[in-house]
Amino acid sequence: MTETTAPAIADTVSRYLEFWNSTPDQQRRTGDRTFAGDASYIAPIGVLSGVDALADFTDQFVSNMGDYRFQIRTEPDIHHGYARLAWEIRTGDTSFAEGTDVLTIDDAGLVTSVVTFVDRAPEVAAHHAEG
Fold this sequence. Notes:
131 residues; seven-stranded mixed β-sheet
């Protein structure tokens, strides 16, 4: 087994960001180049498996919240087949949430798992109180 190089991981991280910021049709194509077929996504909201589940998750988010932008807050930490990225989700001019994803990347440069931590949760209760 060869170790995935930092430049290869950086390329995977770029595709990962592209995946989250793509239209639904583009997202499925980008997902096939980014994730292993059985990739897992483990987050406080639940556990998802595969590109279709991740794309469906995005569709649901957009249906409820509207357009968004997923962006990194700092340069990702990369080593030994892992990447840790601090992210922010923005809806319009508003910061919706912040978190950290830890990606496991295989020798082919595909994401096999993502573990998501929420560093600053959305203020959902505040939005419900206003409405």
